[in-house]
Design brief:
The complex is a heterodimer of chains A (326) and B (426).
Chain A (H helix, E strand, L loop, with lengths): L3 H20 L9 H37 L1 E2 L10 E2 L3 H8 L3 H31 L3 H15 L2 H11 L5 H8 L16 H25 L4 H9 L4 H12 L1 H16 L3 H6 L11 H11 L3 H31 L1
Chain B lengths: L7 H22 L18 E7 L4 H17 L3 E7 L5 H10 L6 E5 L3 H7 L22 E4 L2 E6 L1 E2 L2 E6 H6 L9 H13 L3 E4 L6 H13 L9 H16 L14 H7 L3 E7 L3 H4 L6 E4 L9 E3 L2 E5 L6 H10 L4 H11 L2 E2 L2 H4 L2 H4 L4 H11 E3 L10 H17 L4 H16 L2
Parallel strand pairs in B: 1-2, 1-3, 8-9, 11-14
Antiparallel strand pairs in B: 3-12, 4-5, 5-12, 6-13, 7-9, 7-10
Helix pairs in contact in B: 2-12, 7-16, 8-16, 8-17, 16-17
Classes of the chains: A mainly alpha (326), B alpha/beta (426).
Chain lengths: 326, 426
């Protein structure tokens, strides 16, 4: 990372170069209106493929989703004319006895995944940041965990958390509990268990991003702090944590979005159950659309979820722009 | 001709596009060109591929499909059968969306609950040709899937549930015979729990499978889709929750599909398992003697006759060949006996069902008996076709909630009725 002073100098240098170029005898010919139009046209031409792709792959599906949510669309009617039903799908969703419960589940899930993912990611980044052999081994393991497909990851955890799984085995062997704990089938624990596994799965990604941001920390600053008597906690608190703040802001938004749209671990580990104990909004949308084949209802739920994600996406975009400006 | 340098990049792109288009047209040129199979044979030595979509994934099922394909290919030179596995929960959606794009497989092997959506979406067509099938008379009406009086699928076999029991454990616990009443069942399960075993295993995962597993129990308590009332459901939920409380049934069942509970049973952990005839191959792995009996239901109770439905894809380019494939495999005596020996599927043809392979087998003969004594059509005729998926998913979800004790029996039954009643109105 470039220090603020170096960055300012560079900017000044560039501005000087520009002014020198302008003041030289070989100045660029003044642009005519035709030239400006041609320039704008070329820029538009370059932007066109990306815009077309975005329209086709991002905007059009969302428009279709919104249209679907206002119509009665089922497996039987998907390939026919759709009957317009206004906001009936939304009304049915809000009136559903499970809706509040599912929203609460979603919020709880997002909070657990985000908090544990961020704190765990930062601590893991510090652990691997030193570049020691142990740190490198830990880093390699984290990359492995990150690269594992969620279906495999979820299946492994399903076995580990089962009645005869390793976790219950250890708890019983150490006398912490005499009965197996229903991590995945007790409605008090199912959501938290899946959220913990989800947080565990996002920690490696967050750690890698945090580590990238910490690499640029000037070691002499840390050495100076150590000479001044700063302990490990203080070095983390006053040097490393502030240094990672910019990355943390962006990463928080990304982790919230990741947690909010999380589906695969729930699908593999609990299927949203028992009952709807671990059902979140994205999983509910899946059940409505692909189990009950009520695509209209699924679209309404998905659009609601999308609305929340869009809010965070806008926050993310604002932060990225702000970071770039700084 | 001299090219303007400014156009050169565009010409390059155009040349690439033209080459790509030619390559694509060359590829597609060797594909479909009308119906090459009106006689049921690959014409002029040209290879024909028949695509079959299914959701079978156990070793016995896959091996049986391959055996049937080999026999069909041997009888039809130049024809190759290509199976495509589609996960069960994606089958209907994939077929419906494929139909939207005017494509799809030659043959579909699908769950009965998807018949309405597949027929209305145009993924399958009426099976008018079945009437001219020489052996059509061998099939009972219960094996046919109708939508508004039109035939949209025929089942080559049925799957159903029975009560699997661990004979060695029963002997050890002093139980003389499998239970025939609910009181006997609960007394036997109590003995198993006292001996450190589970009483029973069944599925409690939210969704369609749990509706299928729950149907015998809630109909046994007096529930009917034709006259849906909360009281029989509350009684069923109370029964389930008391099983969980007494340790007869693990709460872990709420995460089990139909495979895991049978693995638990086959491992010797449980006295009983409510599971299907397709587990015959898996049961042979058990290190104890076992048997199957009728579920201890009241006279109101019934067992849904499941199993997959077969029909031809509406956009098949080889419809005649696809018909022949079904007639010579799923709908033939030999094919149904292959399915029987491969994974215990109970034949629907009268002649195949009367085969000695069933009557002489102690497990299969019981399942054949269950078909006669407790069998009910699936989906239930009282459920409006358009709501079959919604109703079955809802019932399954509440079965799961009851095992998880997500509410009191009365509360769950009332909540269920609030959502179920409008779905059952025609």
């Amino acid at each position: 990372m470039v220090s603020p002073i170096t960055k300012a100098t560079s900017r000044q240098d560039r501005s000087d170069q520009v002014s020198q170029r302008s003041s030289s005898g070989v100045s660029a010919p003044p642009k005519t209106a035709r030239g400006r139009r041609r320039g704008a046209g070329a820029r538009l031409a370059f932007a066109l493929p990306a815009a077309a792709l975005l329209l086709a792959l991002a905007v059009w599906p969302v428009v279709q989703l919104a249209r679907m949510s206002l119509h009665e669309v089922t497996g039987a009617t998907l390939n026919h004319e759709w009957d317009f039903i206004g906001f009936d799908n939304y009304t049915a969703l809000f009136d559903s006895p499970d809706f509040r419960h599912v929203v609460t589940n979603t919020l709880a899930f997002v909070v657990v995944v985000t908090v544990l993912g961020m704190v765990g990611g930062f601590l893991a980044a510090i652990s691997v940041w030193s570049g020691t052999r142990g740190g490198n081994i830990l880093l390699a393991m984290m990359v492995f965990v990150w690269a594992l497909p969620p279906v495999i990851n979820g299946s492994i955890w399903k076995f580990l958390l089962g009645d005869s799984g390793l976790v219950n085995g250890v708890l019983k062997a150490t006398g912490i509990t005499s009965q197996s704990i229903g991590f995945l089938y007790d409605s008090r624990f199912a959501l938290w268990s899946v959220a913990l596994v989800n947080a565990w799965a996002v920690i490696p990604f967050n750690a890698l991003i945090f580590r990238a941001s910490l690499i640029s920390v000037d070691e002499s600053v840390l050495e100076a702090a150590e000479v001044d008597g700063a302990g490990p906690y203080q070095r983390i608190r006053y040097i490393l944590a502030p240094h990672a703040r910019a990355a943390a802001t962006v990463l928080t938004v990304l982790t919230i979005v990741y947690a909010f749209r999380s589906f695969d671990f729930i699908y593999v580990m609990t299927a949203g159950g028992p009952g709807t104990s671990s059902t979140t909004l994205p999983y509910l949308a899946y059940v409505q659309a692909f189990a009950k084949l009520n695509y209209g209802a699924g679209a309404a739920t998905a659009l609601l979820s999308l609305g929340v994600v869009v809010v965070f996406a806008l926050v993310y975009a604002r932060d990225v722009r702000r970071n770039e400006e700084n | 001709m001299k090219h303007n340098p400014r156009w050169r990049p565009f010409m390059g792109v155009a040349a690439l596009a033209t080459a790509g288009a030619l390559a694509l047209s060359a590829c597609s040129g060797s594909g479909s060109n009308g119906d090459p199979s009106s006689s049921g044979e690959a014409p002029g030595g040209e290879d024909v591929t028949l695509t079959v979509w299914h959701y079978y994934n156990t070793d016995g099922q896959v091996a049986t499909l391959e055996k049937m394909a080999d026999a069909f290919e041997a009888a039809h030179p130049g024809v190759s059968v290509e199976y495509e596995y589609i996960p069960v929960d994606q089958m209907t959606t994939k077929a419906v969306t494929a139909a939207g794009a005017k494509t799809g497989p030659d043959v579909l092997v699908f769950g009965a609950s998807g018949t309405y959506d597949l027929s209305q979406s145009g993924a399958i067509e009426p099976m008018d040709w079945f009437d001219s099938f020489a052996d059509a008379g061998q099939f009972p009406d219960g094996a046919k899937q109708y939508v508004d009086g039109t035939l949209y699928g025929v089942q080559g076999f049925v799957n159903l549930l029975g009560l699997w029991y661990n004979q060695d454990l029963m002997t050890e616990l002093g139980i003389a015979a499998p239970p025939t009443t609910m009181d006997e069942l609960e007394a036997d399960m109590a003995k198993a729990v006292a001996a450190g075993k589970e009483g029973i295993t069944l599925t409690g995962k939210p969704g369609l499978e749990s509706q299928w597993q729950g149907f015998p129990w809630f109909t046994s308590n007096g529930f009917s889709y034709g006259d849906a009332q909360a009281a029989p459901m509350a009684k069923t939920y109370a029964q389930l929750q008391s099983w969980v409380d007494k340790g007869y049934l693990s709460k872990e069942a709420t995460t089990w599909d139909q495979t895991i509970p049978f693995q638990e049973f086959a491992a010797g952990n449980s006295l009983f398992a409510v599971n299907g005839n397709w587990q015959i191959a898996a049961a042979q792995e058990a290190s104890f003697s076992y048997g199957v009996s009728l579920l201890p239901l009241t006279s109101d109770g019934g067992i849904l006759l499941g199993g997959e439905v077969q029909n031809i894809g509406a956009f098949s380019e080889h419809k005649d060949l696809a018909e022949q494939y079904l007639e010579e495999t799923f709908f033939s005596t030999a094919g149904q006996l292959d399915l029987l020996s491969g994974f215990g599927a109970i034949p629907t043809r009268a002649d195949a069902a009367a085969d000695s392979a069933i009557s002489s087998d102690p497990i299969l003969s019981v399942f054949a008996d269950i078909v006669q004594k407790q069998g009910r059509p699936s989906p239930s005729p009282q459920v409006p076709s358009k709501n079959v998926n919604a109703v079955e998913t809802l019932m399954g979800d509440y079965w799961s909630k009851a095992i998880a004790k997500s509410g009191s029996p009365d509360q769950l039954a009332d909540e269920l009725m609030t959502q179920l009643t409008p779905l059952l109105q025609k």
